[in-house]
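Dear colleague,

Thank you for sharing your sequence with our group. We've completed the structure prediction you requested, and as agreed, I am returning the results in plain text so they can be pasted directly into your records. Please verify that the sequence below matches your submission; if there's any discrepancy, let me know and we will rerun it promptly.
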Amino acid sequence: MPDFSARFDDHWLLDGARTPLVDYCGALAEVSPIDLGIKAARAALTRAQVPGAAIDSVVTASMAQASFDAYMLPRHVGLYAGVPIAVPAILVQRICGSGFEIIRQAADQITLGYASLALVVGAESMSRNPICAYTHRGGFRLGAPVEFKDFLWEALDDPAAKVSMIQTAENLARKYGISRAEVDAYAASSFERALRAQAEGFHAGEIVPVTSERFELDGYEPRGIKLPRKVAVADRDTHPRPSPLEALAA
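Please find the predicted structure tokens below.
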């Protein structure tokens, strides 16, 4: 029987970087995930001491389209990170598993000899998920219903199974016997550990601060990041907060 397994005996993650995880509709709400991806990619390449010109493949992931140039996410992230235009760039969507999937696909490309160095980037912005309509390309007839819906909310519902992600959590809790008290205790512990990690600077080495800046590229239009006027820099995760059991159980 043929063996179709892949071996990753000599594959290495050289380095990485991420932008901070800020609150929904917070400091990064107006920033395209493409630009966040460019920012993280540039930082990762710098930390790994790998020039963009040495990259053989760009593998990216994004679950929801959050800008009008979303189709070009893999190409633009690669280009503005210094990767030559001749290098292939792909976009992967495996919902919540997209980040893991692009690492696996990059490893597969190296195993199969398609690449020696791959740039792997995940980019997402829940704040920029659109309010959209799919049925009005032909215009708006008088008296016909207008079907603008919240993409972020609607996309969390599986119409085949008629189950939302919220209901999925309830179903899993029943299936595996997980109580509300256990969930609250885990959440409280998670928040406490996150706050302690922040205070001790544990995440400082992986977060690249985000400021307003332009990304220049010869022969192409400049693009960049513009933060709200009152925000000079986004350099820390903002969601972790004191969350005692009493507050979570309320």
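Summary note from our side: The chain has one domain: 1-129+204-250.

Kind regards,
the structure core
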